[in-house]
Amino acid sequence: MNSTNAGLAAVRFAATLLCFSHAFAQSPQASPDLILRHGHIFTGDPAKPWVEAVSIQGEKILATGSDALIEPTAGKRTQVIDLHGRMAMPGINDAHDHTGSATYGVEAATKHPPQENPSIAELAEAVRTAAAQAAPGEWIHGSIGRTVITNPKLTRMAIDDAGGDHPVILQSYVGHGAILNTLGLAKIGVDDATPDPPGGHYDHDSDGHLTGLLEEYAADAIWMRLADEAGIPAAVQQFQGYAGRRLADGVTTVQVMATNQRLSHLEMTFVQADTPLRLRIMRFPIPAEDSLNGDHTGAGEEILMPRIRVAGIKWVLDGTPGDQQLAFMTKDYPGRPGWRGRPNFTVDFIDAQLRNALLGKDQLMLHIVGDAMTDEVMDEMEKLALAERWRPLRVRFEHGNGFTTPERMARAHRLGIVIAQPRPGRPFRALVDAGVPLAYGSDGGMGPFFMLGIMTQPGNPQAITRLEALSILTRGSAFAEFQEGEKGVLAPGMLADIAVLSQDAMTAAPQDLAKTKSVLTLVGGRIASGTAADLR
C-alpha cells in the first residue's frame, strides 16, 4: 500500500471509530438541544410549508411549528436563538460545482476578470510577467476568457517567446480547452504524431503541426499532474477558503464534479480540511490516465466521514456551445457551415456506460449540452431498457441545454432523467410543468440567489415561482443525489441543515435577490457560519 492510500485508510479508520464513540456517547434527551424561534421559516414540507420555530436534537429536526408550540419544550440546557423575524430555510444543496484545487506554478494574471477575453498581446505580457517571477522551469498557468481560445492567432508560437524556458498552459474560462506553448507540449510528451487521447483532441494546423490547442479530456490529465505537484497541504488551504464562502451563501451540501485532483488526493484533501460542509464526490475517470478498457461500473457509495461520501460517476460527452462550439448540435453553428460540434466519445462507449448504469452500482452523470447529444443518449437509453428500469436510476444530464422541445422534455420525464445545473435561459416553466426533476448547481460561479432571481425573473414566460425555485435549491438537489429522505426539508427526523438569510427571499426586489447571503448557517444542528449576534 502506498503512503497516500495508507494515510487515507488511517483517516477513514479514525473517522469510523469517531462515529461509533459518538453513537454510544449520546443518549435520548427529553428536551431539544437547540430552538430557533421568532422566525419566518420555509420548511419545504408541503404539509407545513411555513413555521415560526424549529427544535433540534443532535443532528436532526425534532419538531416544527409555532413559537407557542415549540418554546415550552425547551429544557435547562436548551440553547434558544431568536431569529428576530428573519427568513430561514433548509440548507442549500449545490448539485454541481467544481471546488477548485491548488495548482503548481505561477499564475499569469491579466487585468480582465477570468470570464472576459484579453487580447493576445495582453496574454503574452501576463505570461512574460509570471515567467520573471517563476523558478527555472516552473509552470506558468492562467485563465484566458470564454472565446479568445478560438482566435486562430492564439497558438503555441504566440506565447513561446513570452514563456521563455517555462512550460505554459492557459485554460479557457469554461474549462473545456487549453493552449500550451511548445515547451509545455514537450514537457507532457505530446508531439505532432501523438494520437488523440480518448475523449480529447490535439489540434493541428494544415501542415499537420500542433497548434498548442488541447480540447476536452486532452487537457484534463495535465491539470491533474499540476495539482499533484502542488501537494495536499496547499489543496487543503484552498478548499477551506472555498468552504467558508459556500457556507456564507447558505450552502450546506456540495456535490463535487471534476476537479484537477485525482480521486485519492481529493479524498485526502476533504478529510484533512475537515470543514462543516457535506460533500458528495463524483468519480471522474480521466481516460488518458485510466484505460478505457478498465472497469468503470463504479464501486457504489463509499463513506469517508459522516459528512463526506463518494458516489456516482461522471463523463463529459460533449463540449459547450459558447466558446469552442464543441457542444454536439443537430444544426450547423452560425457562420460555420458543416460544423455541428462533436461527441467526445463513440456511441459504443456511451452504450457501455449506460449498460453499467443499469447494473445499479453507481448513479450515472453525463455532461450533455448539445441537442444532438441529448437525442443520441436518450435513443440509446430507450434501446437498452424500458423506461421503468431507467426511472429509479435517476440518470443525470448535467446542464441539459438540449431540452428545447416538449417532445424531448416528455422523453426525459418518462426516463426519469434529472437535469442538474440548468443554466440561465432554460425553459424552467416548461420543464417543471413536464415533471422533469431539476437540481440547482452553481458550476463555479452562479450563486444560489442569483439563480433564484434568474429562475423567477418577472416578465419571463418561462419563469417559475419563488417557492418552486427554493425547492429546486433544496429538495430538488437532494433528490438528484438520492438524499431526499435526509435533507432538503425541515421536518422531524430530517437533518438540521439550515440557512438564516440576510433578507427575505420571498419579498426582496428581483434586482436585489443576488445579494442575499446567510447570516447564520447550521449544519447538523451546529453553527457552521456566522453567529447568533449577527441576527440582531
From TrEMBL:
The keyword NAD does not apply. GO terms for molecular function: hydrolase activity, acting on carbon-nitrogen (but not peptide) bonds. The keyword Ribosomal protein does not apply. Residues 1-25 form the signal peptide. Residues 79-527 form the Amidohydrolase domain. It comes from the Bacteria. InterPro entries: Amidohydro_3, Metal-dep_hydrolase_composite, Metal_Hydrolase. Keywords: Signal. This is Amidohydrolase 3 domain-containing protein. It comes from Granulicella rosea.
